[in-house]
Amino acid sequence: MTVSEFNTCVDQYSDNLYRFILKHIKDVDVAKDIVQDTYEKVWRKVNDIESTNAKSYLFTAAHHTLIDYTRKAKKQGDYTEAVEQKLKHEKHYTDIKEVLNNALDKLPEIQKSVVLLRDYEGYDYAEIGKITGLNESQVKVYIFRARATLKNYIGHLETII
Question: Which of 10, 29, 31, 89 could form a disulfide with 22 if both were Cys (CB 3.0 to 4.6 A apart)?
Fold first, then answer.
Protein backbone atom coordinates (compact mmCIF):
# COMPACT_ATOMS: atom_id res chain seq x y z
CA MET A 1 0.00 0.00 0.00
CA THR A 2 1.33 3.43 -0.85
CA VAL A 3 1.24 6.49 1.40
CA SER A 4 -1.61 8.04 -0.57
CA GLU A 5 -3.61 4.79 -0.32
CA PHE A 6 -2.95 4.77 3.44
CA ASN A 7 -4.21 8.36 3.71
CA THR A 8 -7.29 7.46 1.71
CA CYS A 9 -7.84 4.48 3.98
CA VAL A 10 -7.64 6.75 7.04
CA ASP A 11 -10.15 9.15 5.52
CA GLN A 12 -12.59 6.42 4.52
CA TYR A 13 -12.58 4.17 7.55
CA SER A 14 -11.62 6.22 10.60
CA ASP A 15 -15.21 7.06 11.54
CA ASN A 16 -16.38 3.45 11.18
CA LEU A 17 -13.40 2.22 13.17
CA TYR A 18 -13.95 4.79 15.90
CA ARG A 19 -17.67 3.96 16.11
CA PHE A 20 -16.90 0.22 16.31
CA ILE A 21 -14.44 0.72 19.17
CA LEU A 22 -16.59 3.26 21.00
CA LYS A 23 -19.48 0.77 21.11
CA HIS A 24 -17.20 -1.55 23.08
CA ILE A 25 -15.31 0.84 25.34
CA LYS A 26 -17.83 3.64 26.03
CA ASP A 27 -14.92 6.00 26.70
CA VAL A 28 -14.27 8.62 24.03
CA ASP A 29 -10.62 9.20 24.91
CA VAL A 30 -9.74 5.51 25.11
CA ALA A 31 -11.53 4.86 21.82
CA LYS A 32 -9.49 7.62 20.15
CA ASP A 33 -6.29 6.12 21.57
CA ILE A 34 -7.19 2.66 20.28
CA VAL A 35 -7.94 4.06 16.82
CA GLN A 36 -4.61 5.85 16.85
CA ASP A 37 -2.79 2.68 17.98
CA THR A 38 -4.53 0.75 15.22
CA TYR A 39 -3.41 3.16 12.54
CA GLU A 40 0.10 3.06 13.98
CA LYS A 41 0.14 -0.73 13.67
CA VAL A 42 -1.11 -0.50 10.11
CA TRP A 43 1.50 2.15 9.28
CA ARG A 44 4.27 -0.13 10.50
CA LYS A 45 3.12 -2.81 8.05
CA VAL A 46 2.05 -0.46 5.27
CA ASN A 47 4.39 -2.10 2.75
CA ASP A 48 3.01 -5.59 3.49
CA ILE A 49 -0.69 -4.70 3.13
CA GLU A 50 -2.54 -4.63 -0.15
CA SER A 51 -4.91 -1.70 -0.55
CA THR A 52 -7.78 -4.08 -1.35
CA ASN A 53 -7.43 -5.71 2.09
CA ALA A 54 -6.92 -2.46 4.02
CA LYS A 55 -10.40 -2.26 5.57
CA SER A 56 -10.34 -5.85 6.77
CA TYR A 57 -6.81 -5.46 8.12
CA LEU A 58 -7.81 -2.26 9.94
CA PHE A 59 -10.76 -3.85 11.69
CA THR A 60 -8.69 -6.93 12.54
CA ALA A 61 -5.98 -4.76 14.07
CA ALA A 62 -8.59 -2.70 15.92
CA HIS A 63 -10.25 -5.84 17.27
CA HIS A 64 -6.93 -7.18 18.55
CA THR A 65 -5.95 -3.81 20.03
CA LEU A 66 -9.34 -3.70 21.76
CA ILE A 67 -8.77 -7.15 23.22
CA ASP A 68 -5.32 -6.13 24.42
CA TYR A 69 -6.78 -3.06 26.09
CA THR A 70 -9.52 -4.98 27.88
CA ARG A 71 -7.04 -7.56 29.10
CA LYS A 72 -4.75 -4.89 30.44
CA ALA A 73 -7.64 -3.11 32.11
CA LYS A 74 -8.79 -6.44 33.58
CA LYS A 75 -12.35 -5.75 32.57
CA GLN A 76 -12.73 -9.06 30.84
CA GLY A 77 -14.36 -11.72 33.00
CA ASP A 78 -15.85 -15.15 32.59
CA TYR A 79 -18.78 -14.71 30.24
CA THR A 80 -19.53 -18.37 29.66
CA GLU A 81 -22.67 -18.28 31.75
CA ALA A 82 -24.95 -15.33 32.15
CA VAL A 83 -27.51 -14.98 34.85
CA GLU A 84 -30.93 -15.01 33.20
CA GLN A 85 -32.29 -12.31 35.48
CA LYS A 86 -29.60 -9.83 34.41
CA LEU A 87 -30.44 -10.34 30.75
CA LYS A 88 -33.98 -8.97 30.99
CA HIS A 89 -35.44 -5.62 31.67
CA GLU A 90 -38.90 -4.71 32.83
CA LYS A 91 -38.95 -0.96 32.22
CA HIS A 92 -40.84 0.75 29.43
CA TYR A 93 -38.77 2.99 27.17
CA THR A 94 -39.41 5.19 24.21
CA ASP A 95 -35.76 5.49 23.16
CA ILE A 96 -34.90 2.37 21.14
CA LYS A 97 -31.26 3.41 20.79
CA GLU A 98 -30.84 3.49 24.57
CA VAL A 99 -32.44 0.07 24.94
CA LEU A 100 -30.23 -1.41 22.20
CA ASN A 101 -27.08 0.06 23.73
CA ASN A 102 -28.01 -1.34 27.14
CA ALA A 103 -28.73 -4.71 25.57
CA LEU A 104 -25.40 -4.70 23.70
CA ASP A 105 -23.60 -3.97 26.97
CA LYS A 106 -25.05 -7.16 28.46
CA LEU A 107 -23.53 -9.36 25.73
CA PRO A 108 -20.23 -11.21 26.09
CA GLU A 109 -17.37 -9.42 24.34
CA ILE A 110 -17.08 -11.80 21.38
CA GLN A 111 -20.83 -11.79 20.72
CA LYS A 112 -20.87 -8.02 20.90
CA SER A 113 -18.00 -7.81 18.40
CA VAL A 114 -19.55 -10.11 15.83
CA VAL A 115 -22.98 -8.46 16.06
CA LEU A 116 -21.47 -4.99 15.68
CA LEU A 117 -19.36 -6.11 12.73
CA ARG A 118 -22.34 -7.78 11.05
CA ASP A 119 -25.22 -5.44 11.80
CA TYR A 120 -23.52 -2.07 12.24
CA GLU A 121 -20.59 -2.35 9.83
CA GLY A 122 -22.11 -4.74 7.27
CA TYR A 123 -19.36 -7.36 7.08
CA ASP A 124 -20.20 -10.83 5.80
CA TYR A 125 -19.54 -13.96 7.86
CA ALA A 126 -16.21 -14.77 6.19
CA GLU A 127 -14.83 -11.28 6.78
CA ILE A 128 -15.94 -11.33 10.41
CA GLY A 129 -14.20 -14.68 10.78
CA LYS A 130 -10.96 -13.20 9.45
CA ILE A 131 -11.21 -10.19 11.75
CA THR A 132 -12.00 -12.14 14.92
CA GLY A 133 -10.03 -15.28 14.17
CA LEU A 134 -13.12 -17.50 14.24
CA ASN A 135 -14.35 -19.85 11.56
CA GLU A 136 -17.52 -19.01 9.68
CA SER A 137 -19.75 -21.44 11.58
CA GLN A 138 -18.56 -20.05 14.92
CA VAL A 139 -19.37 -16.55 13.72
CA LYS A 140 -22.89 -17.65 12.77
CA VAL A 141 -23.40 -19.32 16.15
CA TYR A 142 -22.21 -16.26 18.08
CA ILE A 143 -24.43 -13.97 16.01
CA PHE A 144 -27.41 -16.26 16.54
CA ARG A 145 -26.82 -16.40 20.30
CA ALA A 146 -26.30 -12.66 20.53
CA ARG A 147 -29.48 -11.93 18.60
CA ALA A 148 -31.42 -14.39 20.75
CA THR A 149 -30.10 -12.68 23.88
CA LEU A 150 -30.96 -9.25 22.47
CA LYS A 151 -34.45 -10.45 21.59
CA ASN A 152 -34.88 -11.89 25.07
CA TYR A 153 -33.62 -8.68 26.67
CA ILE A 154 -35.74 -6.37 24.59
CA GLY A 155 -38.82 -8.55 24.76
CA HIS A 156 -41.87 -7.44 22.84
CA LEU A 157 -41.77 -4.32 20.71
CA GLU A 158 -44.74 -2.96 22.65
CA THR A 159 -42.62 -2.62 25.80
CA ILE A 160 -40.24 -0.29 23.98
CA ILE A 161 -42.69 1.94 22.17
Answer: 31
